[in-house]
Amino acid sequence: MSEQLLFAQIVAGVAAGALYFLVASGLTLLWGALGVINLAHGSYFMIAAFAATTLVQQFGPGAGLLLALVVVPLAIMILATGLEMSLFRRVYAGGIWGQLLLTFGLFLVLSDLTRTVFGALPRSIPSPDVLRGFVMIATIRVAKYQIAILVATLLVALFLWYLLNRSRTGRLIRAAVDDPAMLGAIGVDVKRLRTQVMAIAACLAGIAGVIAAPRGSVNATLDVQIVIIAFAVIVIGGLGSIWGALVAGILAGVAEALSTLFIDQGSEVVIFALMVLVLFIRPTGLRTIVGRE
Amino acid sequence: MSIIHRAAAASALAIFAVLAALPAGAQDGTIPIAGSFDLSGAAADVGKDVYDGVQYAIEEINKNGGVLGRKIQLTYQDNGTVPQKAVDQSTAMLRDGAKFLLSPQASGSAIAVSKAVSAKLKIPTCTSSSNSDDLTIKDFHPYIFMMAANSYMEARAVANYLSKQPYRRYAVIGPDYAAGRANAARFKEFIKEYNPQVEIVAEDYPKFGATDYTATINKILAAKPDYVWTVLFGADLITFSKQAQALGFFEQMHNHFMGLYDSNTLKALGPDAAVGTDGWQRAPAKLLAEASPAGKAYVEGFKAKFGHYPADWSTLGYDCVSIWAQAAEAAKSVEPEAVAAILGGREFKSVRGPLRIGKLDHQAEAPIYIGKVVQDKDYGQPLLSIQSIIPGAEVRPSEETLRKLRGG
Questions:
Q1: Which has the closest alpha carbon to B101: B30, B47, B33?
Q2: Which end of chain A, N or C, is more open, meaning fewer C-beta atoms within 10 Å of its C-beta?
Q3: Alpha-carbon torsion, ordered B239, B244, B250, B251, to 10 deg
Q4: How many CB atoms lie within 10 A of CB B104?
Q5: H/E element, B244
Q6: CATH of B152-281+368-395, one of 3.40.50.2300, 1.10.10.10, 3.90.79.10, 3.90.640.10
Q7: Is some CB atom of chain A closer than 8 A to the CB atom of B401?
Q8: Which residues does chain B have within 8 Å of residue A120's beta carbon, measured at their own beta carbons?
């Protein structure tokens, strides 16, 4: 195994991990801060990706993708807000099982709706001209579009840091992570906070879906493929921890990429093996939460 | 109540009981057939295409008088690409009286239905898109028949074709599931058989539905193969191709790459298609339209109905129904035993030309089409420009091989 290949796989893993973080970031906010499990989170990602393909097919790879980055996450936010207010609020009192049943049902419905609206055939859109091809970093090739994903991930991470540390909503979210029971007791409108966090989480999934669309095939199995990995990433990172999710996403991507050097199959299993290992050493993930089961 | 009234009531009841006991279809004179299609889930794109081809075939046959003077009536369900669901649905539909079953598209479901339903209920079953050679070799029974060249035949055909090229160092990529691994194993076996100097320098089996192939691409390039062969298909091949293009993979490999391209995959790839690379295909619409009047009529009729050219899977689904109908006409009966008995060893007309169904394995001796990816002006999309058509009869397993593979 050459050093060049090792370096190339690490870079590939970091880039793949960035996408995992983008999807997982919203999920960790929801689950970690508010104890809300949303199995349909991957559906938002998939719908966003399909919507992006429609806009790019209409307006071209440059303008279409830019338009999609603005419009689609907003649309997903509105969808998620509507679902949260009309459906999720009815099951919070029932605990985790109600949420699991509801969101599983939502996942099935959204999957069928997506197929009805966008069709069953996989779609593919080109990346913007300026982001096609690759650059050489040292001796390895890195796709320009992957660098764009890394930059977008950094911007999202910075936005989330700002949100959590400089805004009132962010302070409330951090408070919810630390002591959810106290939040209601001190007069915070927990209902409204849940809706806000759901909207932010969906927006993040929407951004991830749009960004991911030019990278590969946009098809009706994306929801399952991405949400399984996202759940593993948030468990590794620690529920509610954005930085934990970032480190975990990158770790997962790198582990998956490096595993191809030693085995010719089952690289995804490595992510779950990593999850088991982290839980063994640190049961609450890389960043701990106090008081949350 | 008078005797006449009682007699009338009893007669009415008796007629009702007889009608209720009759299978659906017999009541209105139609022939009931059934299909468990993968219309949602992982194989939804293939399932929809097969369904379209099946519907079109039924429409054409019924327009021309049906089978033995009776129209065909299709009952179908969506199995969600879940084998157990496919088994349950197929069982229910066949117990309802269907005379013929269209198999699910995903190989796992196709094998499950063949073994657990078709063989037990003894109903002729046609597999269109699934070409797992288990179906017609290891798990063969006389009620199954397959429209595509099976994986044994395809691997043999492409290996034979490539062995005549000056490549020695091969890399193999396949999706990490049973059929993907089996297809790759067959290719490796045959390429070494045809050219003992061949060395497999790298292999990778990414998960089915992977979203990132960069690590696989890096690994393959680092091994410096002469040629890369892959059995990735559909959405996986689209994702791989796009990410490989972005890294200059095909240039670095001098286009020494072969994949399983169907027309929908090439259409989806559009400008990202790797023009100049090699591929194989099961039913190229443009070639079929140019090859015969029947092919032209089929392709043009399909386009008129659906607004687009037929995908490979649609053609295979169409041939399934067409050949079953021809078998029923030849047997002068739609009864399952009669149709099953007449299938093997007989030649039928198909969109792909005359197709012989093997006597010992009910395997269609379907041709394998090999060509290069080009941008086609007439169709407005990338297509395979077919350069070699390998007759199925040349690469099918021999009688001796069948016996050996069946453990006889």
A1: B33
A2: C
A3: 150
A4: 35
A5: helix B234-246
A6: 3.40.50.2300
A7: no
A8: 39-40, 44-45, 47-48
Distance of CA B22 to the CA centre of its chain: 33
pLDDT in tens, A91-133: 888 788 889 999 999 999 999 999 999 998 899 999 999 999 9
Residue A293: is its pLDDT beyond 50? no
Instruction: Give the domain range for residue A139.
Output: 3-281
Q: Is residue A269 part of a domain?
A: yes
Task: Considering only CA atoms, give the Rg of chain A.
Answer: 19
Let me know if B59 is exposed, middle or buried by CB neighbors in 10 A (0-12, 13-18, 19+). Answer: middle
Residues of A in contact with B203 (CB under 8 A): 264
Q: What are the chain A neighbours of B271 within 8 Å (beta carbons)? A: 126
- Establish if A287 belongs to a structural domain: no
Domain B31-149+291-366 has CATH 3.40.50.2300: yes
Residue of A123, A254, A267 to mutate for B, most B C-beta atoms under 10 A: A267
Q: Please give the tally of structural domains in chain A.
A: 1
**Interface subset of B 343-372, CB within 8 angstroms of A:** none
| Per-chain mean pLDDT for chain B | 93
Are the Cβ atoms of A115 and B212 closer than 8 angstroms?
A: no
> Is the CA virtual torsion A32, A34, A40, A41 positive or negative?
negative
Of A15, A124, A134, the CB nearest to B269: A124
Distance (Å, rounded) from C-alpha B122 to C-alpha B340? 9
Structure tokens at B264: 């929908």
* Residue ranges of chain B assigned to CATH 3.40.50.2300: 31-149+291-366, 152-281+368-395
CA atoms within 13 A on the CB side of A279: 12
The stretches of chain A forming alpha helices (DSSP H) are 3-28, 34, 41-59, 61-86, 96-118, 144-166, 168-178, 180-185, 190-212, 222-237, 242-259, 267-281
Written as one letter, the residue type at A88 is F
Q: Residues in chain B with pLDDT < 70?
A: 1-27, 408
Residue of A186 and A43 predicted with greater confidence: A43
DSSP assigned state of B364: B
- Three-class HEC string of A183-204: HHHCCCCHHHHHHHHHHHHHHH
The helix/strand/coil state of A24 is helix
The tens digit of pLDDT for each residue in B355-382 reads 999 999 999 999 999 999 999 999 999 9
In a domain, A291, yes or no: no
**Cβ-Cβ contacts under 8 Å, A8 against chain B:** 218, 222
Q: Convert the pLDDT of each residue in B295-305 to its tens digit.
A: 999 999 999 99
